[in-house]
Amino acid sequence: MNLAANQDAITTSSRFVNHSEAIRGQIIPRNSIVFPKRGGAIATNKKRLVTTPILADSNVMAMICPNEFCLEYLATWLRTIDLAVLNSGTSVPQSNNKDVAPLPIPVPPLAEQKRIITKVTELLSLCDALEAKLTQAESASTQILSAAVHHLLQH
What's residue 124's pLDDT? Predict the structure, then answer.
């Protein structure tokens, strides 16, 4: 999850196993979302799409996307959940199925899920553009302030 190429989805790994070495029950299927379930990593709130079957260690939990869900819709919903709030409160933070399973998931029709994802994507792009403009404006303001201070100190 921490590799640069895995920011949105698990696309690579630093460790590989032969398919024959993998225990069938431990394989996380495609159309799943993985996230930390134990330790300080819970506070990072990382959630990654799984688009090809993977094998993960016991510190990772997976939510398998049912057929009535669009994977991107489920991932967008899951990103609104703060994993740190779900943790058990023990000395080593952890979340379990009993913490995640009761979460209510809104289930609009599949076509509506896709419309929601399209709209969310558009709005996130708009937010990125606004953030870039704010950064640009802040940089310009800093340059103007610096020039003004420089001018005042020269006189």
Answer: 93
